[in-house]
Amino acid sequence: MGDQNILVVGETLVDMLPAVPGDLRDVESYQRRAGGAPANVAARLAAVGADPLFWTRVGDDGFGDFLVDTLEDRSVPLRFVEQDPTAKTTLAFVAHDETRDRSFTFYRDGTADTKLETGAVPTSTLEEIEWVYVGGVVLAAEPARSAVFDLLRRAREANCSVYFDPNWRPELWDDDDTGVLEDAVEMADVLKATSDELEQLGYRQESLERRCEVVCRNGPHTVFLTRGDEGAMAYATVDAPWGDGAVEHEGFDVDVVDTTGAGDAFVSTTVAALARRSADLDRIVRLANASAAISATTTGAMERPPDWRMISEFVDSHTAPK
């Protein structure tokens, strides 16, 4: 695509991946990897030729230098990648259980990605793009929360489509602040979530399709629902440019090494497909599941993001779901 019609917004951080699975108290060594859901999305969008703009903030420290170098190496434009001399870079220590699923311990109190500043992305830029993707973690702290909501309001006035991923991390939120996520859902055109995240947002209807239907009454016209190793589904209303309906895909059977970033791989592929104006919702979900499956076979979220050809060939060579 290469015309910079996507703006990604959110945190860039360092994932510290354990050498062995199990409780963090038993881990003696870690591998440093670039991470943060929006950063992963931006890098994967660049890999499929989407040339995204990325608004993020890291510390002016060694970790921040490493992240900026990694983004540049992944061909992510640095125009809105800021380094803050007054704040440190966020760290996330990852723990893997026996199934290679993960949990996080964050060091994020007053770090650089919590300090995004209102107006850093000018309205003139928003008027030139079509899609804005926002991850929910950046909304967990001020002043970044207010800065991002200001950007979302201006983006909607500029007729941008908004894609929101709550990326729920309960340890980052105060109990009385989680209504912020509901506000973001109301401003979104497209929502990507897990079933647990929909429950957290108050959607507890018996069937997943019914939950998606009710979500769409509150703002979005499309919901992508990821279900881990059970695949994913999508639900769209008549207001969606690609048509209404619900589709499901069971996912692909692969040898899982690390699930860190698999959801971000799903997101980046759906964003890229929508920005390409794809009208085939079933094909979009298959491509996104393929991207997530490929991601789960490697360590870290940005190490070897696949290009569009690799994702398409994976789908075509795995004609039958698991």
Automatic annotation (TrEMBL):
MF term (GO), any: ATP binding
Any Pfam family: PfkB
Stretches assigned to the Carbohydrate kinase PfkB domain: 4-304
PANTHER family on file: HEXOKINASE FAMILY MEMBER, PSEUDOURIDINE KINASE-RELATED
The species this protein was found in: Haloterrigena turkmenica (strain ATCC 51198 / DSM 5511 / JCM 9101 / NCIMB 13204 / VKM B-1734 / 4k)
Membership in a protein family: Belongs to the carbohydrate kinase PfkB family.
Keywords, in A-Z order: ATP-binding, Coiled coil, Kinase, Nucleotide-binding, Plasmid, Transferase
CDD domains referenced in this protein's UniProt entry, alphabetically: bac_FRK
Name the UniProt record assigns to this protein: PfkB domain protein
Coiled coil (residue ranges): 181-211
